[in-house]
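Notes continue from the previous slide.

Worked example: a multi-chain complex. Inputs as given:
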Amino acid sequence: MSAVAVENTRNQPLVNLRGVTKLYKRGSETVEVLKRLDLAVPRGDFLALMGPSGSGKTTLMNILGGLDRPTSGEVIIDGQPIHTLSDSALSGWRARHVGFVFQLYHLLPVLSAEQNVALPLMLTKLGGPERKKRAMAALTLVGLEDRAKHKPAELSGGQEQRVGIARAIVTDPTLLLCDEPTGDLDRKAGDEILELLQLLNKEHGKTIIMVTHDPHAAAKAERTLFMNKGVLGEEPEA
Amino acid sequence: MNALTLIWGALKRRKARTVFTFLSVVVAFMLFCVLAAVRQGMLGQLKINIAERLDTNSIAQSLMPLSYYAKIMSVPGVTAGIYFIGFQGHYKNEKNSLRVVVTNAKELFKVYQEFSAPPAQMQAWLSDRQGAVAGPILATRMGWKVGDTIPIQGGPAQKDGSTTWYFHLDGIYKTGLPTAYQSFFVAHYQYYNQGIANTNMQNVVGQYTERIDDPRNASAISNAIDKLFENSTPQTLTQSQVAEAISFVRQFGNISAMVIYVGLAVFFSMLLIIGNTMAQSVRERTGEFAMFRALGFKRPWLGWLVMRESLLLIVSGGVLGLILGYEVTHLLAPYVGNLLQTFSMTWSAAGLGIVLSIIFGLLAGLVPMRRITRLRVADALRRG
């Protein structure tokens, strides 16, 4: 790739959705969950997505993360049209480019914090010591290096979510997708998580898209978009 | 950390369930071993009993005079013959019960060529009136070694009134035949016959066994032997051991088949329950598998992870079940040996057991594997 091409890629939005529609069948009825959506998210952005339940936020996140496919339209992430990828290729793409942070953490209870963080590295060719080193680095970044050997049950909710974030960033992904990351936490723990996400965004340049119901959480993002009945807007519906 | 860490972690998740499932597999395969041993007990006799050997019994199921022996041996085609009788006794205490068989030792290993003993031990036995040889399993069970004097209590009264018979263990024979054949205790007929007090029990035998030159002549030789005693009391019935075994299988075959079918039904039922438990265990972890998919793990890898979990549980349980089952058949052999002399676990049954455990491991893993490989990640993540 030439220097000009690299510069062009840098100037392009990291996330680019064009005319994305998602239809679901519910019995004999067809529901249009996303309606010809266009979205551009620049590299390094911290975007909050808000909206009422059933507005299509999670569907949009799943499409952005390659967990679901649009019925029509284009999903281009970092120059890669992911809607054209096969299931297997999409799995590989997720492993390299996306970090997920879930509301319910989804940690394996039988593994230690360090092992949970190292899970995505099983898909790499790194050896055991290097995986451990990277997992510890991620845990240090989220402030949990002293909890590395603890099982999830021995951690608080906030700490579990920090482990979840460490797991999301351990492969150094291009994009962090957070689905209600503070939804299961009290305000104090939630604030800590949001500060951590801000740190990852500002200090480490991570592009973050966060779905939330909480205006307080959304306020921590650089900008907020509102989803209503499958349509994105700058303002919440009155 | 590797796939094995994840599998082991999944199995440790609900320890009680894993332990009970594992034990179910172990018990199922122990049952398989016992069934295989019963089958071997039924059919194995057909392989061991050879057409070159004939058994002569009293039609009236009474004892026969020793004088028949010389006449039997004069029949053309009979190359060797033994007569024998036995009594039940015990060594030291009644728990160590055993059957003492007395015979004309010189001919024994000519008739039963599957048995052998070191020449020095054989020579010592033949020249020792009180001598005896024992099977290796019996000798081990009783803690005997060659040279020991062995008092067998609870036998028939001797002329001096004693019911304890003293034998010298001159040898330990070898045979590749199943367990029941490795637990005989064989002594000289002459010693017994001269020592027994009951004169009605002197010079009588329970059975004759002959070796013949050509199995094709078995029928003719059998008829010739029985013809010798058609005007005597008791009359005899001679038949080849193969014919006896077939008759035995016919007599008990249906009962045995029924036991095996019922056992197999139980075996398969247990495996269905195990399969269901596996499916339930995976169903409970749907959210975790969705997380794996989100992280980038591919469907085949996760499917194979589930399959390996099923295989690990069932094959390891199966192998342990087969090992324990082998021990159980060993323990049972002395108790069923009279009826099923070839009751034993064979290598082919063990091999079949391992193959079955792999097949069941694959089958039990198939349903959860399908579930995981068809998982809708977005829905599963939402459900948690």
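Summary box: The longest helix of chain B spans residues 241-284. Chain B has two domains: 3-46+252-383, 60-234.
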